[in-house]
Design brief:
The protein contains two helices and four strands. The protein has a domain of 69 residues. A hairpin with a 4-residue loop joins β2 and β3.
């Protein structure tokens, strides 16, 4: 006797209803004036990376095509905004005073 396969029931969650797709809520607007050095840095071939690096669970690194300007480790209880503000200040120190901040690599 052949088995009859039944089609699985489709869930209505995440489906299209009446031709309209469900949209994710819009993110909160970003205050672009709060990180002026990073804004200018990114517009001029700068690059920032945020995330884990090896055993470090959270870090922020800013570099340009020639140098690493700043490498910061996220402090306990530090918000992402606070980390970005410290990165903004560290990049400014590097660009204006050639003072490079490196909290990740120990001094040689």
């Amino acid at each position: 006797m052949e088995s009859r396969r039944r089609k699985p029931k489709r869930s209505s969650k995440g489906s299209v209803k009446h031709g309209l797709l469900r949209q994710a809520p819009s993110p909160a607007p970003i205050d672009r004036g709060s990180l002026p050095t990073l804004e200018a840095f990114l517009e001029n071939e700068g690059q920032i990376s945020i995330g884990s690096i090896g055993p470090i669970p959270a870090a922020a690194v800013a570099s340009d095509p020639h140098n690493m300007l700043a490498a910061l480790i996220r402090r306990p209880d530090e918000t992402l905004q606070q980390l970005l503000e410290r990165l903004d200040a560290a990049v400014e120190l590097a660009l204006e005073h050639d003072h490079f901040t490196d909290e990740i690599n120990p001094p040689a």
